[in-house]
Amino acid sequence: MRKNSIKNIRLNGEVMREISIIIRDEIKDPRIHPMTSVSAVEVAPDLKTCKVYISVLGDEKAQQDTIEGLRSAAGYARKCLAASLNLRNTPEIRFILDQSIEYGIRMSKRIDEVRAGDRRDDSETEEL
């Protein structure tokens, strides 16, 4: 099975949906921030490993605490995933912090600031 095969893409979507449900409903670790979402999942073609990219809306301490909580509950999440999905092998889950959403918001703000600065410069030159 190639990495980007139809089967692998469909499996990534199913695992992403199930992991989201597990994080929301099953894991009761107080370190996990309530505004935690699964942004992407990559299951290896041999079904041995699974990278789960997590996005946390909060400060850096909340992000680190959430990742620590999820990493400590990875075995339980794997057990729940095995119960909900019928796979030959249940992949070992690795949680990775995804900061791309924060990066996008930060870049968007910077672009808006530059545009506002350009507008001020244009209005100043028109007055002269």
Could you please describe the fold and organization of this structure?
This protein is α+β, with helices and mostly antiparallel strands. Helices cover 57% and strands 17% of the residues. Strands 1-2-3 form a three-stranded mixed β-sheet, with helices on one face. The relative contact order is 0.15.
Give a summary of the structure in a few sentences:
This protein is of the alpha+beta class.
Notable features of this structure?
single chain, 128 residues, alpha+beta, 4 helices, 3 strands, 17% strand
Averaged pLDDT: 89
Structural class of the secondary structure composition?
A: alpha+beta
Which range does the strand content fall in? 15-25%
The CA-CA distance between the termini, in Å, is: 67 Å
Radius of gyration: 20 Å
Number of separate helices: 4
Helix percentage = 55-70%
Q: In this structure, how is the largest beta sheet organized?
A: 3 strands, mixed
- Uncertain spans: none
Topology as H/E string? Answer: HEEHHEH
Count the beta strands: 3
Shape: elongated
* Adjacency order of strands in the biggest sheet: 1-2-3
